[in-house]
Amino acid sequence: MKVTVSRKAHFNAAHRLYRKDWSMEQNDLVFGKCNNPNFHGHNYELIVSVTGEIDQETGFVVDVKILSDLIKEHIENAFDHKNLNLDVIDFADLNPTAENIAVVIWNKLRNHIETNKELEVVLYETPRNFVTYKGN
């Protein structure tokens, strides 16, 4: 019997969508106002879900306190009130789109979740725009 346990979190961050190897015109055409050279920000909402068998001894799929601590340590502390382009090494050469941010978050957490458990990251950039990543 598999059950999914989820934890919600949030962080505020600025970013700019652009490619260094493109002209300003091409960046504007593809990324529009998200290419603002002075950056722009979002109040990101994050849902991290772990799916697996219920441990018969504890009754948990995953201890929510441990999951909460992992999100705080590896995601919120790393991203909250940061400029993703300038302050977060993961985006030094990676465009910080919602899709790429979700993959980076998944990769940061995957090593801390038991391998027999499935991990899913849902990242809301706005209340109406969100992405989901479940791994390869």
From TrEMBL:
List the keywords (alphabetical): Lyase, Metal-binding, Queuosine biosynthesis, Zinc
Q: What is its EC number?
A: 4.-.-.-
Protein family per UniProt: Belongs to the PTPS family. QueD subfamily.
- Specify the pathway: Purine metabolism; 7-cyano-7-deazaguanine biosynthesis
Question: What name appears for this protein in its UniProt entry?
Answer: 6-carboxy-5,6,7,8-tetrahydropterin synthase
Q: Which Pfam families match?
A: PTPS
**What organism does the UniProt record list as the source?**
Flavobacterium chungnamense
Cofactor(s) recorded in Swiss-Prot or TrEMBL: Zn(2+)
Q: How is the cofactor bound?
A: Binds 1 zinc ion per subunit.
Q: What class of enzyme is it?
A: lyase
